[in-house]
Amino acid sequence: MATVAEREDREPEPDDLLAVGEVARRTGVVVSALHYYETLGLISSIRTPTNQRRYRRHMIRRISLVVIAKRLGIPLATVATLLAPLPMDRMPTRAEWQRISKAWKRTLQERRRILEALEHELTGCIGCGCLSMKACRLLNPDDELSREGPGARRVE
């Protein structure tokens, strides 16, 4: 694993060690968020003899997936579960990424289904209990859907 100084005269490698500021710049994630992701077990770092964090370059992929998942509204706990099968101490293999991609695909399909339902029902009744649309009185009379739980029951 090469340090910053050792990398200057060669091509970058997945196991190169990057300072926290380098990772923050490359991913667009603030340093405090990187530390937080580490406490959640989403990413890992190693410590130098002077106790500075260093991230293996391949952690950038994990961080990028966390950022994308957050944009899609996927909870960090779900992301942690999805990433859990991958090794932290080495670069995951293509086969390992393929294995976890099945779980990601299911999560993304569910997210897509919810978004499409919202898109379809945006001008109609979403089952939230507002009863403000004409369709609400037909599809959710007297807010009957509230018995199923909180939130927009026809979308969730």
How many helices in DSSP terms? 7
Q: What general form does the structure show?
A: elongated
Strand content: 5-15%
Helix content: 40-55%
Structural class: mainly alpha
What's the quaternary structure here?
Answer: single chain
Q: Unreliable stretches, pLDDT < 50, 5 or more residues? A: none
Order of helices and strands: HEHHEEHHHH
Write down the overall mean pLDDT: 90
Q: What is the β-strand count?
A: 3
Give the strand order of the largest sheet, numbering strands 1, 2, ... along the chain: 1-3-2
Main sheet: strands, sense, barrel: 3 strands, antiparallel
The gyration radius over C-alpha positions equals: 22 Å
Q: What is the rounded distance between the termini?
A: 46 Å
Protein name: Redox-sensitive transcriptional activator SoxR
Keywords: 2Fe-2S, DNA-binding, Iron, Iron-sulfur, Membrane, Metal-binding, Transmembrane, Transmembrane helix
Pfam families: MerR_1 (PF13411)
InterPro entries: DNA-bd_dom_put_sf, MerR-type_HTH_dom, MerR_fam, Redox-sen_tscrpt-act_SoxR
What does this structure look like?
The chain has helices spanning 4-7, 20-27, 31-39, 59-71, 76-83, 94-121, 134-139, and strands at 17-19, 46-47, 53-56. The chain is built from 7 helices and 3 strands. The protein starts with a helix and ends in a 17-residue tail after the last helix. A hairpin with a 5-residue loop joins strand 2 (46-47) and strand 3. 49% of the residues lie in helices and 6% in strands. The longest helix is centred in the last third of the chain and has 28 residues, at 94-121.
